[in-house]
Specification:
The structure holds 2 protein chains of 2 kinds. Chain A is elongated. Chain A is α/β, with parallel strands linked by helices. A 4-stranded mixed sheet of chain A has the order 2-1-3-4, with helices on both faces. Chain A folds into 2 domains: 237 residues, no CATH class; 120 residues, abc type-2 transporter like domain (abc type-2 transporter like fold, 3-Layer(aba) Sandwich), CATH 3.40.1710. By secondary structure, chain B is an alpha/beta fold. Chain B folds into 2 domains: 230 residues, no CATH class; 119 residues, abc type-2 transporter like domain (abc type-2 transporter like fold), CATH 3.40.1710.10. Chain B contains 18 helices and 5 strands. A 4-stranded mixed sheet of chain B has the order 2-1-3-4, with helices on both faces. In chain B, helix 4 links the parallel strand 1 and strand 2. The relative contact order of chain B is 0.11. The mean pLDDT of chain B is 91. The chains are: A alpha/beta, B alpha/beta. Chains A and B meet through helix 2, helix 4, strand 4, helix 6 and helix 7 of A and helix 3, helix 5, strand 4, helix 7 and helix 8 of B. Strand 4 of chain A pairs parallel with strand 5 of chain B. Chain A: It is a multi-pass membrane protein.
Chain lengths: 379, 399
């Protein structure tokens, strides 16, 4: 029996190898994806947000303010414009994301303790830019208000320490856990590559049943008397083994060469990935069990695989989605996998949580394999 | 013209006869748009779960806790009282941010001793991370301003005097184009453009492979009909359906997902028209070259994520290496997504979108040129040993 199973597995590897399109997809798809996405996010941290200043005052105080804005975290002065229209033009063209307008008599008003209003404009069309720019400007605002307030109080005869107490009584520090540098490459590159990998695996798994029953050789196989269970189980083991062999270089490159964060153990990660590979394979198998042909099977599989990354909550959080959609998302193994990758690779959330995730994925696999078995048996 | 309409009619029959193709052409784009719309419908990330670890339990520390509780951006999670519990909560996702107020905090502040509030947030998902950092700063800026106002009132200043001191210098921030920081305005139309691109390409790129698989392509090749008429006839239904989907999805996005679609309508239509021409022509070109429908389906579907990610639509192109930007600029989806944002979100006029329009016109010209110049001959199948699924056939139960 074992020899027969091994022969079927060997045949499956040969079949996958001879399918040139699938071979290329499995061998290079996710690796190319990893390298492409790493190149896209090679800047890693969103620094140097282009900032333009329109200084109507041009006094020592306004230059000090410009200097302060230029030194703010993530902002980079790229232009000093001669008019408000020029500033607006730069933002329209996307050459500046932040614009600061310093009014006339800013320095004089400051010295006299009168009100001086500075305008900061943020281009909100790209939220990655806008959120970072807004956070940077909030820090500038805090410092600027405090300094001006202290000066105003001192000018009114309040003692310096008392004035500082009013504004700077509370010291606050910030820490970003699990990704202290807010590195975008850490956050997204591996997940995107794994998304390509799961799509490649779905495509391969979508041939599992129809790839046999849609061929004339199926009659020969049936005539040999091999049980359907043994036949498809052997094929599935070979395919899942190949999926794991494909993801391994991805992990080695990602965690080894590119130094992406991995805080759980390799064994735990591979076990978790194996559970997902089984779940993805089960979905492909189910699609291929009722499809009329291989193209339809690929379509059915990819209808789930394509939007699953967005629905998984890896980027836009699940908690921000409507409750009914969250329930749908948790039916998909991709949600368990991508949520789990975040919890385990970044946070090492512990074996209890991982066991729960693995069991959920295996349960989904059991349901899909069961449904596929019913389709195969009935046909 | 009659020949073109006849071929178009024949293609229409295929679309209506094949249920899955019909669904792909008319329903799948709307289905995906509805799915992604539902995911992003909340638009803004609010109610960030935050834990307050108050080790001081003083009046001041309770004021800080109240500031977070009163913020619409945060939802204070009860039951996390220690640093260890906070660590655990951050690990298992129960909370995404934490505020730790040290022991003797109020006492140390009154003695001017060194003390500080520690705020932490989850950086493993940067949508949580970026937003939470911004919200924390907003809460503390308001809190510090409120405390300063109370302090000044305590010194005997009147309300107007306090306001005058507080407003000595103010940095008023205006957010243009997307003032509510809506993720839907930012992201959704990019997803729509990729859906139209991929589903459109996938539908039209099966038009010739289907004929090859049924061995009816030979009839087209041997018929006294020029190549451009075959292209025009076969592509026409997909072009019309593509433009219908473009209009439908824009209406759906504006009506149900509340996405901002402003700017010039003729410009939006022109961009859509060019995009549709490119997709239809490129799909037909792929179809004439591809061995079978299975290979086309596989490759086209895998392109969705890379197309979106390299376009500079999310991660800004200024922070992407030049060679990736060069590659992205060879793709119509990049120009369309960025051009559409310029018109619909930023409401800019023609002059700002001209480079996008010229690029799309050039691509449309090249795509149509490539599509109408396909060779009218059958290539012999390559003899490279036992190839599986790479020839004109693939596994099918109905063979």
């Amino acid at each position: 029996m074992l020899r027969q199973c091994l022969a079927i597995m060997r045949r499956e590897v040969f079949y996958l190898w001879r399918d040139r399109g699938l071979r290329h997809i499995l061998l290079f798809g996710s690796l190319l994806g990893l390298m492409l996405f790493y190149a896209v996010y090679s800047a890693q941290v969103l620094k140097d947000i282009p900032t333009a200043v329109f200084d109507l005052d041009n006094s020592a105080a306004s230059r000090e303010l410009v200097d302060k804005i230029g030194k703010a975290e993530y902002l980079k002065l790229v232009a000093s414009t001669a008019s408000y229209d020029d500033l607006r033009e730069l933002i329209k063209q996307g050459k500046a994301v932040v614009g600061v307008v310093i009014p006339e008599n800013y320095g004089r008003n400051l010295a006299l303790g009168r009100q001086a209003r500075v305008l900061a404009v943020i281009d909100g069309s790209n939220m990655i830019y806008a959120t970072n720019a807004s956070a940077a400007l909030l820090t500038v605002t805090r410092t600027l208000s405090a300094q001006a307030g202290v000066s105003a109080l001192v000018a009114r005869g309040v003692q310096l320490q008392q004035a500082k107490d009013a504004y700077q009584a509370i010291d606050i520090s910030e820490e970003a856990w699990f990704n202290p540098a807010l590195n975008y490459a850490y956050f997204l590159v591996l997940a995107l590559a794994l998304n390509i990998w799961q799509q490649c695996c779905t495509l391969a798994a979508c041939l599992n049943v129809i790839g046999e029953r849609g061929m004339k050789s199926w009659l020969q196989i049936r005539a040999c008397g091999i049980s359907k269970f043994r036949f498809f189980a052997s094929k599935s083991i070979a395919q899942i083994f190949i999926f794991m062999a494909v993801v391994l270089p991805l992990y080695i490159l990602g965690f080894g060469a590119l130094k992406l964060p991995l805080n759980c153990s390799w064994a735990a990660l591979l076990l978790f990935t194996l559970a997902f590979a089984i779940a993805v394979h089960s979905i492909g198998t189910l699609a291929s069990s009722f499809a009329r042909n291989a193209v339809d099977a690929a379509r059915f599989g990819m209808i789930i695989a394509l939007p699953s990354f967005v629905l998984s909550g890896y980027t836009w959080p699940l908690e921000a989605m409507p409750v009914y959609l969250q329930k749908v998302a948790w039916i998909l193994p991709q949600t368990w996998f991508f949520q789990g990758i975040n919890y385990f690779a970044f946070k090492n959330a512990g074996w209890n949580l991982m066991a729960h995730y693995i069991l959920a994925m295996l349960a989904i696999a059991a349901v899909c394999y069961g449904a596929a078995a019913v389709f195969i048996a009935r046909s | 013209m009659r020949q073109i309409l006849n071929i178009a009619h024949y293609e229409m029959l295929h679309i209506f006869k094949e249920k899955i193709l019909f669904l792909m052409v008319f329903l799948v784009p709307l289905g995906y748009a509805a799915l992604f719309g539902a995911a992003y419908v909340s638009a803004v990330l609010n109610n960030v779960p935050v834990a307050i670890v108050d080790l001081d339990d003083s009046k001041l520390s309770r004021e800080i806790a109240a500031a977070f509780a009163n913020s619409p951006h945060f939802k204070v999670i009860d039951g996390i009282k220690t640093y260890a519990e906070l660590q655990e909560g951050m690990k298992n996702g129960r909370v995404r941010a934490g505020v730790i107020i040290p022991e003797h905090f109020e006492q140390d502040i009154s003695r001017h001793a060194l003390t500080r509030v520690l705020t932490i947030y989850d950086g493993s998902n940067l949508i949580w991370g970026y937003n939470t950092r911004k919200y924390i700063r907003e809460v503390f800026n308001d809190f510090i301003a409120g405390r300063a106002a109370s302090y000044l009132a305590g010194l005997g200043y009147t309300k107007n005097e306090v306001r005058a001191i507080m407003d000595t210098v103010s940095l008023n921030t205006e957010v243009w184009y997307n003032p509510t920081f809506s993720y839907t305005n930012f992201l959704y139309m990019g997803l729509i453009m990729i859906i139209l691109h991929q589903i459109g390409l996938l539908s039209v790129s099966l038009t010739v492979t289907r004929e090859k698989e049924r061995r009816t392509w030979l009839q087209f090749l041997s018929a006294p009909v020029p190549a451009w008429k075959i292209f025009a006839g076969k592509a026409l239904p997909y072009f019309v359906a593509g433009f219908f989907n473009y209009a439908l999805l824009l209406w759906f996005a504006a009506r149900f997902i509340q996405v901002k679609i402003g700017g010039s309508l003729p410009l939006i239509l022109l961009l859509g028209l060019l995009y549709d021409v490119i997709i239809t022509a490129a799909g037909f070109f792929i179809s004439t070259r591809a061995p079978n429908s299975l290979q086309v389906t596989r490759y086209v579907m895998l392109l969705s994520v890379p197309l979106f990610m390299i376009s500079g639509f999310t991660w800004p192109w200024t922070h992407i290496p030049a060679y990736i930007n060069f590659l992205a600029r060879l793709l119509p989806s990049t120009w369309m997504m960025l051009g559409f944002r310029q018109v619909a979100l930023k409401e800019l006029e023609m002059s700002y979108v001209l480079p996008h329009i010229w690029a799309l016109i050039l691509m449309a010209f090249l795509a149509v040129l490539a599509a109408v110049t396909f060779p009218k001959r059958l290539n012999p199948p390559p003899d490279a040993g036992p190839a599986i699924n790479s020839g004109p056939s693939y596994p099918s139960r109905w063979k």
